Amino acid sequence: MGDRQSDSARAEALRIEQSYVSMLYGRLDVARERAERGMHDVLARGGTGTRQAVVEREVMAAEHARRLAQLSAVERGLCFGRIDEAGGETLYVGRVGLRDDDHTSVLVDWRAPAARPFYVATPSDPGPFVRRRHLHTRHRDVVGIDDEVFDLDRMADGDRRTLVGEAALLAALRRGRTGRMGEVVATIQREQDRVIRSGLPGALVVQGGPGTGKTVAALHRAAYLLYTHRDTLERRGVLVVGPNATFSRYISQVLPALGETQVVLTSMGGLHPGVRATAEDEPAVAVVKGDPRMAGVVEEAVRDRERVPEGDLEVKIPVRTSVRGGVEVVVEEMMLRVDHATCLRARDRARGLRRQHNIARWTFVDPVLRALALDEAAQLDRPLEDGDLQYAATTLWEHRTVRDALDALWPEITPERLVRELLSDEERLRAATGPYLTEEESALLLRPREAPWTVGDVPLLDEAAELLGEYDYGAGARRRRAEDERREEELYAREVLTITDVDPVLDATLLAGRNREDGPYVTTADRAGHDRTWAYGHVIVDEAQELSAMAWRTVMRRVPARSLTVVGDIAQTGSAAGARSWGEMLDPYVKGRWREERLLVNYRTPAEIMEVAADVLRAVAPGEEPPESVRFGGARPRAVPADGTDLRLLVESELREIEEGRVGVVTPDARHAEVAALFPEAVDPLDSPVAVLTVRGSKGLEFDAVVVVDPEGILCQSPKGGQDLYVAITRATRRLTVVYEDRLPAVLHRLETPIT
Ligand SMILES: Nc1ncnc2c1ncn2[C@@H]1O[C@H](COP(=O)(O)OP(=O)(O)OP(=O)(O)O)[C@@H](O)[C@H]1O
């Protein structure tokens, strides 16, 4: 009887919600048709007219295009919940705001202030609200409902009869993992909401244990900030820096699913345009490279490229050539000389200007060239008039020998060449590190010339780029001119926007780009991603505990306004050059201006597995408390000896156990290749059902079942081995199996072992 009653209550609730949701999709269709028609009309008007008319047309076309893209992105799960007040008022919350014909709001955008109670009301602090209802939809159908009741007594009778469901959050967390992080707008928790809606200025640190939703909250924060501060952020863009390229792919779908595209996703290894560094340095090398003293080393390396000859400068130039057998040969040469003091003066003047090396080069080259020209004239007994001197100097520059001689003293040089030669040339390295590093530290940096770029090299490249300035100064000037022109057009477009009073969400940057006859259709994110000197409006750094002091210098250069979200967990620091405290890394830039939010609930890993992780954490970081799991249940975490275990069969049985989802096999660095060879089908760490990863490669990811291979090997692989084991264990959303070699590390005593 009771069951039948609740069945009919569910059916009744579903019917009511379906009718409302159908109405919302109707509104969405109307809005889409309107945008499509608008676009069509604008394009039909043709492509000629005054500049004003062209810009106006572009304004409208861009507006309709943006609106269309936004309306398409919200089709799936358009409306995901409602919140009811005691007085009978109801607010539906969804991915976008919609109004009816009378301009009454029928759906509130999740980022709008009005939607906030949907996320923050709780039974202990409900405000005027009595119930939160989650709606689950498939395509356009409402297929499920979950209710959270704050105050049964204050609910209207009709509503009380149609109460249904289980906690929406737990349902969301139980789903099998797909290999891509999804958005969680429907189930954002109160503590996460505080992070998401925290103000734009200053640095916000989001500290939280594994699985507390730091990443997911930070990405929703990006969407919230772009919605709330669109004016500032759309022009400047938002940069998200993750630990590696796989992680960037893992999170890449979250923001587009929220309708946001103005975001650049990259990793530390990708922050220097033109370089994709993936290799990692040995821990001892990483510590030296990440040390702030390296800024001095790079500066010294640049100074080392600003030399004067030991004595006078001597350069041979050809005086007479003849062609023999079709080849030009030098018949007579002369030696030109510039005295040491003149060279020294030229260098000191060029350095004194405090301009970047490649730009100051001309201040050095010019007087030396003139002195060479004067010497040439004196030797040939050919007095030079004032105007002739410049000409003679320019002519000398045509000689390869002259250019080579001056390049040897003050070369035009790229950051890549500077850093490569610094790290592979013992003499250069010694000269540059001398004032800053010990001999042992310096020796650690030396490597072969053909060594691949490492992630730790990127801050050095960035530092060098800052000090060197543009390579090919002429090209730089041309690019800057083009940028100025573009900026002017953008300003013009903005004015038109104000005059024509169209929707302010229109991106004038896009508009200016479209106005250019030559340029491709370039978004802010596109332009920013290719420009090392781009100043972003906001920067989000994930797994931020791994960044070295030098890496922070690189990141901070990208955000002069110092508006940042710094996401991480000090207890998970795996890099030897990483953070021991947030203050240590952030104080040099935002002392007194950073605030911390803590996330304390683990949404990923069930309590049984977290108990095992907690033992590991206590051993490496006494006093640190692991986050509390929101879920119990699942299989008991277990340990099996490697001897007598077929790893392939074990993984296959794990795949069967989870039915839907993925298995992650986590190994010590040294055993990765050997284990990966057992699973040739595991080609993609995100898309294959099985992924074989080192701990570093698994950072930020999660798997339904995790198999940790050789825990002792992980513990011993670096001074941060304990933290690594903690990270490996906490990747699991449902099952954990540890495969140990000779004996199980004592810290894992809680695991169930086979009875022997
Ligand atoms: N409010 C929520 N609703 C639904 N799922 C959530 C919520 N918060 C977090 N999750 C889920 O919990 C898991 C862990 O989240 P996330 O990866 O953001 O955690 P994290 O703190 O960055 O973890 P780690 O430090 O271990 O990388 C993800 O699957 C995420 O989707």
Automatic annotation (TrEMBL):
Q: Which Gene3D superfamilies match?
A: P-loop containing nucleotide triphosphate hydrolases (3.40.50.300)
**UvrD-like helicase ATP-binding domain residues:** 187-606
Q: Which GO terms describe its molecular function?
A: 3'-5' DNA helicase activity; ATP binding; DNA binding; hydrolase activity
Q: Which InterPro entries match?
A: DNA_helicase_UvrD/REP, P-loop_NTPase, UvrD-like_ATP-bd, UvrD-like_helicase_C
Source domain of life is Bacteria
Residues the entry annotates as binding ATP: G208, G209, P210, G211, T212, G213, K214, T215
One Pfam entry for this protein is: UvrD_C_2
The UniProt keywords, alphabetically, are: ATP-binding, Helicase, Hydrolase, Nucleotide-binding
This protein's GO cellular component annotations are: cytosol
Its GO biological process annotations read: recombinational repair
> Where does the record place a coiled coil?
none
SUPFAM superfamilies noted in UniProt: P-loop containing nucleoside triphosphate hydrolases
PANTHER family in alphabetical order? DNA 3'-5' HELICASE, UVRD / RECB / PCRA DNA HELICASE FAMILY MEMBER
Q: Which protein is depicted?
A: DNA helicase IV
Q: Which organism is it from?
A: Microbispora rosea
